[in-house]
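for the record, two folds in this file. i put them one after another cuz i was lazy. first one right below, seq on top, C-alpha cells after. the second one comes after a little note so u can tell where it starts
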Amino acid sequence: MNTATALIVAIFSLFTPKDSNDCETAYQDAAIGYQQIKQSMKSRNLEHTQLYVSRAKDALEKANLTLKSCGCAAAENASFDAMEHLEKSLEKDTYERSRFHVSKAKISAQLILSSLDVCGENGLLSTIDEEEETLLNQEEKLLAQQQRLLEEQKKIEAKIKKQKELQQRLQSEKKQKLEQQLTIKREAETSLNELKQSIINTTKSLECSTEAFAKLDSFYRSEEALEAETVQATRLFYAQKTEEMVHLLLKALEECK
C-alpha cells in the first residue's frame, strides 16, 4: 500500500460510524453495574456493601471491553473514575468510608450511562433514576457527621475506661486496707484476750474483785466497723483498749488493799 492510499484509508476511518452494537452492549453492562451500586448504597453493613461493590466492578469491567470500540470518550473517563472509587471502596475497612467511595462511584456510573446516551446516534433512551442533585455533598456531610460521632464515642469510651481503672484501683486499695486492719484486729484481740485472762487470774489469786473486768469484751470489732475507719483509727482503738485494761487492773489492785 502506497502513502497516498494509506492516507485515504486513515481519513476514511475517522468518519466511520461508531459501532452502535458495542455502545449498546457497554450500556447494558454499565446499567447492571449501576444497579449493583444502588444496591450497595442501600446496604447497612460493610460486608453487604462490598458484596454489591464487587458485583458492580465485574459488570463495569465487562463494559470497559466494549467502551473503547464504542468510541465514547466521556463514558470511558467516567468508567475509569467509577472503577477507581469501587476499588477504593473494597480496600476500606469501615462501613462509612467504603460507602463514601460507593457514593462517588454512583455519580460516575450515572455519567457513563448519560454519556453513552449522548454518544448514541439516535439516543439510547436511558431511564436513569435520578436522586438528589446534591447526593455527593450529602454523603460527604454524612461521613463528616459520622466521623464526629465516632470521635465522641471514642472520648466516651476513654472516660469509661478511666473510670473503670479508677474504680478498680480504689477497690484494690480498699481490699489492701481491710487486709491490713484484719491483721491488726486478729493480733490485737488475741493479745488483749490473753491480757484480760492474766489480769483476772492475778486479781483472783490476790482475792481481789474481778467485777470491773466484766465489760472488757467490748474490744472485739466487726469487719463493717473496720471498713468505716482508717488503719490508724483501728490501731488507736486497740491501743486505747489496752490502756483501759491496765487502768482497770491498777484500780482493782488499789481497791483490793
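(here's the note) second protein begins now
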Amino acid sequence: MERHEQLSVIVDRIVASDEMHTKWLNSLSMMENTGARKISKYEHPVHTGIIVLKHAAEEARHAYYLKRQIGKLDPDACPDYSYPYLLAPIESYHYLNQLDVDACRYVKNKLNLSGREMKHGAYLLVTYAIEVRADMLYGIYQEALTKYESRVNVKSIIAEEEGHLEEMQKMLEVFHPQWESLAKDMCEVENKLFEKWVAAIAKILNDSTVSQSY
C-alpha cells in the first residue's frame, strides 16, 4: 500500500469517529496556531513585509477556523489544547518545534549564517516544507470529509495554503540560487517528523479498535 493510500485510510478512520475527529481538528488547530505564533515571534519589529503579515494572519485564521469546525461535531469537545484533547499530543507539539530547531541548525551549518539571517532562512525553509505538507494533507482530509458527507470542510484552507506555497517559492528564489536543493533537504527533515506523528496517530487508532473489541 502506497504512503498516500495509507494516510487516506488513517484519515478516513478519524473522520468516521466524532471523538477522534474532534481531537484531529483540535490538533490541526493547535499546530496552525503554533505556526502563527512562531511567525509572529520571527517578525522584525520594523522591517516586516506584507507577505509575512499576511502569512501570520492566515495561519491564525486557520487555527480559529478549525477550532470552530469542532462545534459542528460536538460543541462541548476540546475546549483547549491540553493533552487529553489532542491526537498524539506529544508528537503534535514536538513536530513544529523540532522542525524549527532542525532548520536553524541546517541553515547555520549549511550556509554559515547566524542571527537574523539564520532565522530568515529557517523561516523560509520551514514554511515551504510545511506548505508542501499542508497541500497534501488537507487534500486527503477534504476527500474524506466529502466521502462521509461531513459538515466540516477545509476548502478555504486548501486555497490559502496553495497561495502560501507560491509565495514561499518566490521568497526562496530571492534568498538563495540553490533554493531547490535546500528546500528538498528541509522537506526530507520534515518528512521524518511527519512520519513519527502519523505513526503515533495510527497507534492510537489501533489501540482504540483493540479496546473496543473487548
